[in-house]
Write the structure tokens for this entry.
Amino acid sequence: MKLALMCRNAELYSHRRLVEAAEGRGHTIDVIDHLRCYINITSNDPSVRYRGETLPRYDAVIPRIGASVTFYGTAVLRQFEVMGVYPVNESVAISRSRDKLRSMQLLARKGVGLPVTVFAHRTSQASEVIEMLGGAPVIIKLLEGTQGIGVVLGETEKTAESIIQAFGGVNTNILVQQFIKEAGGEDIRCIVIGDKVIASMKRKGKEGDFRSNLHRGGTAEKVKISPDERSTAVRAAKAMGLNFCGVDMLRSNNGPVVMEVNSSPGLEGMEKATGLDVAGKVIEFIEKNAKPGKTKTRGTG
């Protein structure tokens, strides 16, 4: 098969592993920086140009689009979809998952467990927001934050009110969430491919940090998840429409609650914690599922 990997940095561990896995299984794979692509929107003959050449018709494309370039990246991916190229994750699904508010609304509609969450913009009623969540402590998140950036813990009502008002003062949208104390600064990351959880790990934040992101100095280890956690991860992926994603959950007293569904999960932490060949599983999924024009939206959603 002829594959394309859409990414900005070919040297990242995840991207090197995907290239290795594809070539190791006998496929050819081109690495394409989507920000350097031009889209030719022409009736009956759509194309993508890259480095002065028109790209060939690929069998499948693996999108690894960073959060800061979601708009342009999904536009290029949508063009591949219009051309009939099979996407591991569709442009519409990626856009859904990147919008924190939209993703949580979709998860709630599907009955997936979530922490109690309030969406606000420049609210002067910070105390009312905190009351809706059952009081402090609460987690305050910038809607556009990633990798633990823009996430703050309001330990007391006064502190939480001050943070909410400060964010409101810079004209930004925020999510305020119930703090799951019983999680103890740990979360579960599951990798879902197709309709199965193929790997899972437990992440713990560094001492004194409630955030468990590995980018922030957290640690990870292999973990056995419950049937309920497995089901929650798969249902969260399906709600987004993602074939390949990371689902981050907390273990609460009321069962698993989903914090985020990541359409471009890193492979390094998971592969090192579990010893599993996650990249190989992605290529295996493509081999079984890639067919010309096999998308739900065909680039029109």
